[in-house]
Write a structure and sequence with these properties.
It is built from six helices and no strands.
Length: 168
């Protein structure tokens, strides 16, 4: 059985996501102002400058895209076309992926705007427990966890191709 769209709950979620997105953008701007660039091996370091910037971007972009999805659902509901929304309302309750992925990349401590945005999302009744748990994991994490350094293999002498005229 499909649940009816609760427009008041949806609007409350939209307002919270919009404000959280603004806060995530604010944090992203701080990281960009630090002059972080994606031109070094820093991308291999969880919590490093490149991963932190990318994590902030993922959170901000995720919130903006998610807000657009919520607006589409609200539009269908307001027009009395809830059936056109299909499975979108149920899928939307699962939240958006930029939170856990972006948060796993970011250096600790998280900037205040990021924490404020995450805590704001925790107050919304619209979201499923799994999304709220992912937010809580990001807030409680003591350090960045992505990327896992063990995924980067350091080439050994045996991996190198033999040079012309030489045998290994």
């Amino acid at each position: 059985m499909k649940r009816e769209i609760d427009i008041d709950q949806l609007v409350a979620a939209m307002k919270a996501v919009d404000e959280a997105g603004r806060l995530f953008e604010e944090a992203r701007t701080v990281y960009e102002a630090r002059g972080l660039k994606r031109i070094s091996d820093d991308f291999k370091v969880a919590g490093g400058p490149v991963q932190t910037l990318q994590g902030a971007e993922e959170m901000a972009l995720g919130a903006r895209k998610y807000l657009a999805e919520l607006a589409l659902i609200a539009g269908y509901a307001a027009a009395g076309l809830e059936e056109r929304a299909g499975e979108r309302p149920e899928a939307a309750r699962a939240g958006f992926p930029g939170i856990s992925g972006g948060g796993a990349r970011m250096a600790r401590p998280l900037l205040d705007p990021t924490l404020e945005g995450l805590r704001l999302l925790l107050t919304v009744d619209f979201f499923e427990a799994g999304f709220k748990a992912a937010i809580e994991d990001v807030v409680r994490a003591e350090k960045a966890t992505y990327p896992d350094p063990s995924t980067f293999r350091i080439p050994t002498r045996a991996d190198r191709a033999p040079q012309a005229g030489r045998t290994p």
